[in-house]
Amino acid sequence: MGEDAREHRVRFRILGSFECWDGADRVRVGGPVHEKVLVTLLLEPQRVLPVFRLVEAVWDENAPATAAHQVRKAVAELRQRIPDGRNLIVTEGPGYRALTTPDQVDLSRFTEGLKQAREATAAGRSAFAATALREALDLWRGPLLSGSAGSVLSAASAALEERRLSAVEQLFDLRLSSGENSELVGEIREFIDAHPLRETLRGQLMLALFRSGRQAEALEEFAKVREFLIDELGIGPGDSLSELHNAILRNSPDLAAPPQTTPAPFTPEDKPSTLPYDLRDFTGREAEVRELLGFVQEAPGTGPLIIAIDGMGGSGKTSLAVRAAHQLADSYPDAQLHIDLRGFTPSGQPLSASAAAEALLRTLGVPGDRIPDDAEGRIALWRRTMSAHRMILLLDNALDESQVRPLLTSPTETLVLVTSRALLADLDAAHTISLGVMPPSDSVALVEGVLGRTRARAEPEAVAQLAELCGHLPLALRIAVARLRKRPRWTVRYLVDRLRDDAHRLAELNSGERSVEVTLRLSYEGLAAETREAFRMLGQHPGTEIDVYAAGALLDMGTRDAEGVLEYLLDMHLLQQHETGRYAFHDLVRSFAQNLSRGSAGPGGAGGSAGVEEAAQAVRRLLDFALAATDAACDVLFPGRVRISRPGHRSPAELPPLNTPDQARDWLEREQDSLLAAVSLAYRWELDSHVGLLAANVAFPLDLRGRLEEFRELSRTAITASRRLGDPALLRLSLSNLAVACWKLGRFEEGIETAEEAFGLAVALDDRRGEAKDTGVLGLLLSALGRYHEALPRLEQSISIKRELGAERAEAESLTNLSNLYSEWRRFPEAVEAATRAVTLSRSIGSVDKEVEGLTDLAVARLGLGETEMAADLLGRARKLAVDVMSPADMSLVLALSAEAADRLGESKPAAEWAESALQLGDLSGTPMREAAVGNIIGRLHARNGRYSLSLELHRHAHDAATVVGYRVEEAHALAGMALALEKLGEHGPARAHRETANEAFEAMGIPADPTT
Questions:
Q1: CA atoms 770, 773, 779, 783: torsion sign
Q2: Which H helix or E strand runs over 395?
Q3: Strand partners, 615
Q4: For the stretch 454-477, what's the b/e string if a residue is b when 16 or more beta carbons lie within 10 angstroms of its beta carbon?
């Protein structure tokens, strides 16, 4: 039946529950109609079956009026879902034909196996015939569709069952002829229990019992079958069974078992060892070595001790196995054998089990004339030999479990070490050790051990960077160090600089016959065609981790199917997993995957224009998915925001659960860096519409988390892309976002220039919503510069337009800004009115973040009116709502105001705690406006309590922060606070100067002097 172990094609299993496989990937073909149609076609491959035959197979005589249409629809969907389905199921005349090859369908292989057995039996090759029958019968898993088919398929299933039972009986005949007897009794009885009327099985049981010296039981069996047949059918046993009964009564010599011809196990005269040498500079893996040795010492049982070591190419699997084998050699004195199964070898086919058995037997010194010619015989002799000796067997570079399993037997005292790039999860009773990359300390130790301590320790930082750039992969590290040893004039830093070029890193990691790229390509070329394509497309993901939803978008498939691909690549160690449900590329594997799309990784890649187009389509799908997912998340977290129209960017991909604020917040937090990387990816591919639209969404969570510099850079990238695209609407949006980022970062002049350009575009585009947004941002920026008389009309205009448009969220935002302006002017009743409306609007649309802002500004106004208890209540509500919806800088302001309210109420303990929390919440240096405001509030609190030195320090710090960015109002408040503290500390001259400067600033801004100072 010999299949090439490397061949990956679509295969169908219909002998039992229906299954379709593409290599190691399960293909879901559809529902019951799809399965019945396909199974019917596969029962008669290469034959045209008319549609009415398929209708009968699906519905018997109860076909609906739309049956023919449903069959045609099912065929169309099968062609889409099965790889190369259009060439597999073809339309001919009135029906369809399945163009499968015999090796693609288990039924065809079953039929071919029975044919080979018949021919081998006729030629006197009984051992081969038995092997062919075993392999054919192993394909059987049950009736067609597990017995759930209609009458047409049930009739076909019954005919197949008859063929199976005939094959079973033929195999028992062959085994009886080869000398098996007592070991057959239990097996035959199982079949008789299921099929009590089959006289052939009854006769085989009687013969097996007789040859086992159990003549009485054989005669008793005849009496049982005779009674059963009379009771059930009213007839006695047939002539053949009766004649066998008479022969057993006579103890006929014709029934004696044939002589055994099985070769005895071979005992080697020497104690051969073919283990590779143990590396003198073997480094690290102490835990894995201890685990392996501990398992060997403590493992119970009589079967082979099997340890399967898996890991990505170059992770040191063979080195680990060889080291352990050498340490254990004295405990297994008969032999220590190593064989390369060539599962992943350049220009080579994997070694078959029979070829491996022959090689192992010859290594032990078995003469060629004692090794059977047939595969079954060679494997049988190896198993008997293995069971008779205490030795170590290192099966290196295995492709999969099926390559290893035939070489194992029980009982035996042999220790079997298996290495593979694939996770051998189905190797029963095996202890698995999966190798990841080396810890950084071990990587550095490996470099020192191979390069030499003196040279390595002269550049410790460069050595650490070299280990990082090699991804802590032992093979990559050894190749890199080998290059340094060949080039004694090279410094480690020089090689590090060469490796920083990601596009050429793999080319650098090449020395002699060893190459990281070749090692990775062997794993890649062992994948099925569709899995190779998936691997290349996954390589386009820009983030450090990928989940099943992003993978589904990249691969253009459902999340369950995408998970299957990810899990398979994980088992093949082409992906890593540090957290359940999230997958990651090793850095070097990612470089390899991306090189494949660029066409620089040799055979098997998708180079040239085809590779670029494949990658481009995957990138577009990923970006469309990112747009859809961020839209959904931002809609939940920021109610009332206006979605941007984006025709042409619809994503059919399944989205993660984003229905609640917690789900949306967690997803954005988890994917934040990947989303930023996605914007950069879109920019590199010049997908400028994606850049602008995605940046507008990603800006929301960046602002929420206080990642303001990234907010600014993101907006600048979006502006560049929008200009390149020539889209004025997208440019206006991107400019507006940059202006907001500039305000929060204290870049007021840059922000004003940007907002004015955005406003000009909005007017030119007749974009009223844009006018409202940009007018409001201008008002905000002018307020920060103390230009309140210019800011007020812009804020009022912005509010008016937003109210006219029904943009409640945007209106609430501008109302809080207006409230803040009125509070600075000490027009507290008007500030209360604006903030109250902001809170009301925010609640009406469920916008918690804007409600917190409104409550905060309303509390400021109440404090200004002396309504401290009311302010404290408002701030308490704000603190409860603020969790996870405010940036650290904004939260620090709420805490500082809470401290001020508590202090005014005489609650010194909570006041002190909130003041400390406000200052310690986070680094406010990136948000100078909040840094200045919080410093001034806490500074005034300390002054009220006589702590003038602390007050002075805080006001000075606030003054520095405000002065750097030109935040004039807090600069003036800081000067006033410094004046009070200095005066109380007896420094009257500086105090007077600061107070005069502060009053001048307040007067210029139209603000009454600070009464608290």
A1: negative
A2: strand 391-398
A3: none
A4: ebbeebeebbbbbbebbbbbbbbb
336's enclosing H/E stretch is strand 335-340
Residue 937 confidence (pLDDT):
94
- Calpha distance 324→603 (Å, rounded): 36
Kindly give, in sequence order, each residue whose CB lies less than 8 Å from that of residue 705, ignoring residues fewer than 6 positions away: 669, 672, 887, 888
CA atoms within 13 A on the CB side of 925: 1
Q: In what order do the strands lie in the sheet with 95-98?
A: 49-50, 95-98, 89-92
Cβ 553 vs Cβ 653: under 8 Å = yes
Give 280-306 pLDDT, tens digit per residue. 888 888 889 999 998 888 876 656 789
For residues 540 and 684, give the distance between their C-alpha atoms in angstroms, rounded to a whole number: 12
Q: In what order do the strands lie in the sheet with 25-26?
A: 10-13, 19-22, 25-26
Residues 6+ apart with CB under 8 A from 755: 735, 736, 739, 774, 777, 778, 781
pLDDT tens digits along 769-807: 999 999 999 999 999 888 999 999 999 999 999 999 999
User: Beta-carbon neighbour count of residue 599 at 10 Å?
Assistant: 15
pLDDT tens digits along 829-871: 999 999 999 999 999 999 898 999 999 999 999 999 999 999 9
Does residue 91 sit in helix, strand or coil? strand
Give the separation between CA 335 and CA 564, rounded to whole angstroms: 41
- What percent of the chain is modeled with pLDDT above 90? 38
Best CA proximity match to 776, nearest among 807, 746, 730, 731? 807
Candidates 688, 684, 658, 685; CA nearest to 671 is: 658
Query: Cα dihedral angle (741, 745, 746, 752), rounded to 10 degrees?
Result: -20
> Could you count the other beta carbons within 10 Å of the beta carbon of residue 97?
18
